[in-house]
Records
---
Amino acid sequence: MPHAQRIQAMTESSTESTTPAVHTERQDGVLVATLARPPVNALDDALVDALDAAIDQACSDTTVKVLHLRSAHKVFCAGADLALMQRSIASDEGLDAMLALVRRMQRVAARLESAPVVTLAELGGAALGGGFEMALGCDLRIAACEARL
């Protein structure tokens, strides 16, 4: 199965959940934000909202000096949710919603780039599309040998 189809199959198999898409934890002056949208942290409205909230939290707390983004899964972030994208482009309203989501994803990357705290992306796996853009928005990127960019 080609790579794009494998990623699409993985995003289609994800289910809506009440589990937070990003878990945050304070460790001294570091706010660790762990992406947790199985299986590949595909970007949807909930994950983008949660990332925005984590950035807000880091920027509004003067004791936070570093925002550390990481993943609870093997993949850092596979980019936009391809199944959501495929469903969305079927109608004009859906297309408008998808374009709005893409603009919000870009805003998250821009906010990471201009944040008043040091931003760090821990890349333990693939960072694709919008996930790669998010990593590039960070001041620092640390990639494991198995990371794919």
---
Amino acid sequence: MNPGLSAVVVGSGIGGLSAAIALRRVGVDVHIYERASGIRPAGTALSLMSNAIAALDELGIDLGLAERGAVVRRFDIRTRRGRLMRRMPFTEICDDLGAPSVCISRSDLQAAMLDELRDPPLTTGATATGFEREPDGRVRVDFADHPSARADLLVGADGFGSRIREALAGPEPARDSGYVCWLAVVPFDHPRLTPGYIGHYWGAGQRFGLIDIGHGRAYWWGTRNMPATESANWTGGKAGVLRAFDGWAPEIREIVDRTPESSIIAVPSRDRAFLERWGSGPVTLLGDAAHPMLTSLGQGAGMAVEDAVVLAHSVSRAPDVETGLRAYEDARRDRTRAMVANSRAVSDMEQIERPVRRVLRDLYMRTVPRRVLTERARAALAFPGLAGVA
């Protein structure tokens, strides 16, 4: 790698901050541009599975997440009324891999990443509109409300509605999954919510997640099948969520009831068709900008972290920027394509509504050999490593 490389990272979400951390670790001078007017505490929560923790470890990065969140100790699949269907072989896999999985609030993860960056060069209120390659091979990034920036490489980490992706690939439709998702974080104490607990409850066209994120807080999410026109404009409020989960396990009703209405976020569940070409010249994409996926596997943030580590590794080893960026994209394409497809397949299975198919789904979960569950989970939870990355 040529010394003294510079990078513009568009987006200051988990993907953008991960990219900045990893690139700086290999000596790249990074400047982050964010469309929002400031860096605010992020809402709800997420999981960083063993694969993401192991990826960070490849670059010697320890964000102290186990102390900030909750290490997963138990993962149960339950019926809507709370009856145990299956205990997943999750912690055994993490222990075998030598890296924990952590559930953590987005604001705590954001704070950990900003602490690691130690006051990074950051410009807010800067909405990217596109880019142009300069005659000298560098890239100029243009903003609607800020002077242009120039760098040796551009990383589009600006999320689901990425302007950098649109400039690369043109406008693309979102792909609706057929359900709404409600999410919230709230202080919660309940016998079911043991330290490190994840509980997924399955119903008819509905799901609920109850997750310990440490420090007396729980993250919950609920889904319900509905048309895109309704899910994109949900107006039912907290009362509508309570109606949706009437008759479910007592802990579900209790946590929703305790959640302030203003804390409940409703979002349509969407992804996009997989994009095979992530970059051109000194430009590439990362995280949700490259491969937005449904939340069923809890791997959106993890894939962004993996991307960032592989990107930094590839750029640091390549003879020039473009070779490094194409090597990064080649290394990540198959794994992220599979994760997008698997997330949608799991989502479709878990959201089954018709009675006969639902009975078959639940029977499968109760009887599928543990070996099969372990093999499938391990494929997601094991970071492929950097040994084979060009």
---
Amino acid sequence: MKITKYGHSCLLVEEKGVRLLFDPGEYSKVPDALINLDAIIITHEHKDHFVSEKVASILGRCPDAQVITNGSVGRKLTERGVPFQELLGGRGQGIKIGEVEIEGEGELHALLHQEWPQCANVGYRIAKRFYHPGDSLEMPSFPVEILALPVAGPWTTIGMSVEFAIAVKPKVAIPIHEGILRVPGTVHALPREVLPKHGIDVCILEDNTSVSF
């Protein structure tokens, strides 16, 4: 499995010849040269994860790619005439592209405030190895080998994120969701210090860099 980071929470996951792009939002830097995608996967509707114009632009280069997401994002896509496939969490659903299985997990965005409604948020596990939770620290119901770990945001603290990783117990954690920070690396120190003590390797990906597992 090869994982490339394009900023914030936008990751390209390549497995067994299948190419999946996660969360191309306003802080992502998806190269114009990126082509031959099999799917765009969107965890939720917030602009740092989903910009409809950006999705439409990518689909213009990758016309055979499908969009996998939840219903709330799907309604926004429908307004632009973009078809989508709904994949929700916790209902035994799954989608297979080639030899790669995609499973949904969870239902809601992490709570920001009791007076602020929680939007739909579905995390996705790829090939029973990699898990992108979107904006949620809800414990997944399945084992995770490679965890995309949100480390910054108005709905979490770095301490909460580290505790989430310890609970999930992946082999590897890849920090994400730090594109909102002026200096993203400031939230990498604690995971790098603490998580290896719990048997979790921390893989820091700069934008436009890749790692293979």
---
Amino acid sequence: RPKAGDLMEGTGGIRKLRWGREGRGKSGGVRVVYYFHSDDMPLYLLTVFAKNERANLSKGERNELAGLVDLLKQIWFER
């Protein structure tokens, strides 16, 4: 289910999926940040972080990832 995660506002379509780890409780889960454009393009795993390490990505990090997504799309569709 590539569209399972929540869209992250202002990122050009990046999604954040909350994933619990067995036996770790709510705070022991991880956040999986990925980009999925369509079935014509691969799904890209961008970063993973533990929920107990941080709550979210900073605005600067989101902007950097949005730029990376723009580059990935450009490279993919120009090939």
